[in-house]
Structure formats: structure tokens, C-alpha cells
Design goal:
binds coenzyme A, Alpha-Beta Plaits, elongated, Wheat Germ Agglutinin (Isolectin 2), domain 1, UDP N-Acetylglucosamine Acyltransferase, domain 1, 3 domains, 339 residues, 4-stranded antiparallel sheet, alpha/beta
């Protein structure tokens, strides 16, 4: 008997010509599958495509185990031309294969786990760089031949991007969201109900918004934005993937990151950063009337996670100032009521 497995998914994906996985689509990933389901699939290899016979017997076993939804997925896969895989993650350990990595990215985008809620250690080393084309995922080494083949048919192979991550909406469209430009949200993003991403908005994997929220800025990997918050046009949140930063950024509820503003510290609830101001961890901030704090100059990192702050750059002196935020934002309810 398998003890409390972490997750399970039956997926269909793409191999390159050498039979290596490029990507996998899991229509119905499961968090914390039942022990009966886990026992049924325990013997299967999580990186090997299932033969038709294997799939047929898996289908029967899933029915016998009472795993109706997964049995339905298996039934739909029986006639698949594309390779099918069953992935059981007994624990939440670092992903060890492309199917395991894709299952974890699906868990995030299906809102089954929150950013930082699953180990993604070593993800970049596992995921291949892929050409995402109008014919699906193509191995970069095979792209030239596929482009030529399309031309010889009188067609153009459209390459939308070359990246390790596909766009989320080709795999998952969570309920109650609007995404103006789908290429700006990577698989592995977490978009809570009521999240609107405008054209300038961007959401990386292992990052997202609790929703409702208005996202016209960039949510970097690892960053989570609380409900009722607004990221103004072209604002940015510092990630930790490159550039040496190691503070994990988050925004609390009802925060406003003004247009072209940015934050390198986590913000508490109801914080505002003035349009155009980028607050980094080492920015010297003059406290003007912050409740419970004397008027003095502090480094912004000392204000990390504190609520009800308004940051602005004094337009006369250039000094960055912090005041108690007396007029936290409210989202435009009309915009968010109709997702
Ligand atoms: C920082 C911000 C929130 C302040 O807005 P506010 O709270 O409405 O403040 P006001 O503009 O009414 O200004 C209040 C006072 O502070 C002063 N003030 C405002 N910004 C200042 C600055 N940068 N330096 C010096 N004084 C400033 C005002 O002159 C005013 O002074 P007064 O009381 O003597 O008249 C606003 O300027 C801002 O940047 N909003 C972001 C909007 C945005 O980008 N949204 C996203 C759209 S995509």
C-alpha cells in the first residue's frame, strides 16, 4: 500500500525523433490521489510511454479501483497517436523527468498547489528547450527539417516561441480569468479566480495572483500577489532566478504597484508604490509618518512585509519617502465582476 502519494497524472505528449519527451499535457491531474489509485499505477515508469496493451489494462484497473475520472482519461487515450504516460509522484521531491516536471507545472496552473507549494528544484536542467510551433512542440535539432517539409507542402511552420516553458493557455485555462495576450503567461503560473492580465502583464511559472487582481505588470518567478491588488502598466517585481536577488517577493492584499514602479521587497497588505518608483531592498527610505516607527532613514528591507505603507519619491528633493497609506486602492469592481 502506497502511503499518501503527492500527485498523479495521466498525460499525452510529444516525443522527438529519439523518443525523448518534449512536453506532456495532463488533462486531469490529481493532488493526493487515493491509495487505491496509487496502488494501481505504482508499478508504471513515470518517464516511459505506455503501450496500447498497458493502457488497456490500466484502464480496466482504474475502473476496478473506482478511479472513475482517471479511467475516463485512460479511455480517451486508448486511440492516441501520440505517446501516453502515467506519472505517480509518491513524494513531492525534485522532478526527475520531463513528464514529472510537466505534471508539477500543471498542478500549479490547475490551482492544485500554490507557488512554492511543490519542489521545482533542478527544473531548468530537466526541461528541454523547445520550438513551440503551429504543429506543436518540435525539437530544436529537428526544426530545420520540419520547416523545410512545411515549405515543400506550400505552408509555413509558424514558430511562436523557443523556450523551455509553453504558454499556459495551451494546457490550462483556469476559470474566471481574462488574459489579453496568452503568450505572456507561462505554464506553471497560478492565476486565482478573478485575475485579469492585460497585454503588458506577464506571469512566470511558480508565481501568480490569488485574484481578483489587475495585472498590467510583470510577476516574476516565485512572486505571489494577494487578492485585490493592482500591478500598474509595466511595473515589475524582482525575481530570484537571475541578477543575484535572493529575497522572495510577494505582495499582500489590496496593494498598488504604480505604472513603471517596482519592488525588491515583499509588501504587506494595502501598500502603494508611486508610479515610476522602484524600491530595492537597499533603497534608503525616509519614514515620514509611519505608525509605530520614529521619523528616520531606514533601508527598505527593514519595511519588508509591513502593511499600510505608501512609498513615493519626493518630487522636490528626490528622496524616497514612506508614509502611512491612508487611501489603499479598490479594484474597479465592474472590471472584475465579469471574468
Ligand atoms: C503615489 C500616489 C498613490 C499618490 O497619490 P495620492 O495619494 O492620490 O496623493 P495626491 O496626488 O493626492 O497627493 C497628496 C499630497 O502629496 C503630495 N505628493 C504626491 N506625490 C508626491 C511626490 N512624489 N513628492 C512630493 N509630494 C507629493 C501632493 O502634492 C499632495 O500634496 P498636498 O496635500 O499639499 O496637496 C500616486 O501619485 C500614484 O503614483 N499612483 C499610481 C497610479 C498608477 O500608476 N496606477 C496604475 C495605472 S496602470
Amino acid at each position: 500500500m502506497t502511503d499518501s502519494p503527492f500527485a498523479f497524472g495521466l498525460g499525452v505528449g510529444t516525443h522527438n525523433q529519439s523518443g525523448e519527451w518534449l512536453e506532456v499535457f495532463f488533462p486531469k491531474p490529481v493532488l493526493a490521489p487515493t491509495a487505491a489509485l496509487a496502488d494501481t499505477v505504482a508499478a508504471l515508469q513515470s518517464d516511459t510511454a505506455l503501450s496500447h496493451d498497458h493502457l488497456e489494462s490500466l484502464h480496466q484497473s482504474l475502473i476496478a479501483a473506482g478511479a472513475t475520472e482517471q479511467a475516463q482519461v485512460a479511455a480517451q487515450f486508448l486511440d492516441s497517436q501520440a505517446p501516453v504516460v502515467a506519472v505517480l509522484l509518491c513524494q513531492d521531491s525534485a522532478p526527475a523527468s520531463v513528464p514529472e516536471a510537466y505534471l508539477k507545472l500543471h498542478l500549479l496552473s490547475h490551482r492544485l498547489v500554490k507557488p512554492h507549494g511543490t519542489s521545482l528544484e533542478g527544473l531548468f536542467g530537466i526541461l528541454p528547450n523547445v520550438a513551440w510551433t503551429s504543429e506543436g512542440a518540435v525539437d530544436i535539432a529537428e526544426l530545420g527539417a520540419r520547416q523545410l517539409a512545411a515549405r515543400l507542402r506550400g505552408e509555413v511552420l509558424e514558430v511562436s516561441c523557443v523556450d523551455k516553458f509553453p504558454k499556459m493557455t495551451n494546457y490550462v485555462v483556469p476559470t474566471g480569468v481574462r488574459i489579453a495576450h496568452t503568450a505572456r503567461v507561462r505554464l506553471g503560473a497560478y492565476l486565482g479566480e478573478g485575475t485579469t492580465i492585460m497585454h503588458e502583464g506577464f506571469v512566470n511559472f511558480n508565481a501568480g495572483s490569488d485574484g481578483p487582481g489587475m495585472i498590467e505588470g510583470r510577476i516574476s518567478a516565485g512572486v505571489m500577489v494577494g487578492s485585490g491588488s493592482d500591478l500598474g502598466g509595466s511595473s515589475s517585481t524582482m525575481g530570484t532566478l537571475s541578477g543575484g536577488g535572493n529575497i522572495i517577493i510577494s505582495l499582500g492584499r489590496e496593494c498598488l504597484l504604480g505604472a513603471n514602479a517596482g519592488t525588491g521587497i515583499p509588501l504587506g497588505d494595502r501598500c502603494t508604490i508611486e508610479a515610476g518608483l522602484f524600491v530595492t531592498a537597499g533603497t534608503k527610505v525616509m519614514l515620514l509618518d509611519v505608525e509605530g516607527m520614529p521619523s528616520q532613514s531606514v533601508k527598505a528591507r527593514e519595511l519588508a512585509g509591513k502593511s499600510d505603507l505608501l512609498f513615493r519619491r519626493n518630487s522636490a528633493t528626490g528622496a524616497v519617502e514612506c508614509l502611512t497609506n491612508r487611501s489603499a486602492i479598490e479594484l474597479n469592481t465592474d472590471l472584475h465582476a465579469h471574468n
